[in-house]
Amino acid sequence: MSSFVTDGPAGPEGALPLTGERTIPGLAEENYWFRRHEVVYQRLRDRCEGLDVLEAGCGEGYGADLIADVARRVIALDYDEATVAHVRARYPRVDVRHGNLAELPLPDASVDVVVNFQVIEHLWDQPQFVAECLRVLRPSGLLLMSTPNRVTFTPGRDTPINPFHTRELNAGEMTELLESAGFTLEAMQGVFHGRALTELDAKHGGSIIDAQVARALADAPWPPDLLTDVASVGTGDFDLTDAGDRDIDESLDLVAIAVRP
Predict the structure, then answer these.
(1) Are 145 and 258 in contact (CB under 8 A)?
(2) Splitting the chain (261 residues) into consecutive groups of 10 residues, what average pLDDT does each group show?
(3) Which of 95, 144, 140 is nearest to 116 (CA)?
């Protein structure tokens, strides 16, 4: 998931182009979405400490590199050859490979953790991918997965508003997808705006997300105060909360921790 742009501003030198399919670091206009992704990596990377990790759908590669701070080994997989070349050049700690998520190019029971953040909504055959995750995980291995919450991301629509998404999920659908494949759900969590972002929501007409989307759809210049506020967002401005502590249907993104028996 990224912003809804289809042809965005140029990123930093050496960066991937911003197309709307994936988020990239170092771009003020993209900072809100980047930080919203980054917070899940930061909060869950300790689950990868000392372990062999596959990031299935690594995108720009910043997340795989964050995990490499703590993991024994990080394999990163992406279907896009230009992305793979970028990750290989920018993040040398990561073993990046080109491959199809529907047929993961790893042996059975070869990794301890599969990380899949903001990717499942892009896939046509979601059950096949989840079955592949089960196959490559060792017993008691973890699948860490995040995805936009359909209830809040595309409210009242049968089809996703983001042209790069194929099928979005709510919490119940995500749980069913994982459990039907044979996983045990350890936790369902949600990403929410913290206090500072709630204040920015109020400042920008009720939703800083809607303010950004409106600018993108209108292909209009950024109002200076909106750009300043978006550029100021940090990972600490988001809360990651267990479903039992807050209504999961109100979350922005869903985060599942699932265990291979």
Answers:
(1) yes
(2) 45 53 84 97 98 96 98 96 95 97 97 97 95 98 96 79 82 98 98 98 96 87 95 98 97 98 96
(3) 144
Tokens 């596959």 map to which residue?
A: 54
Instruction: Give the pTM.
Output: 0.91
Q: How far apart are CA 8 and CA 118, in angstroms?
A: 19
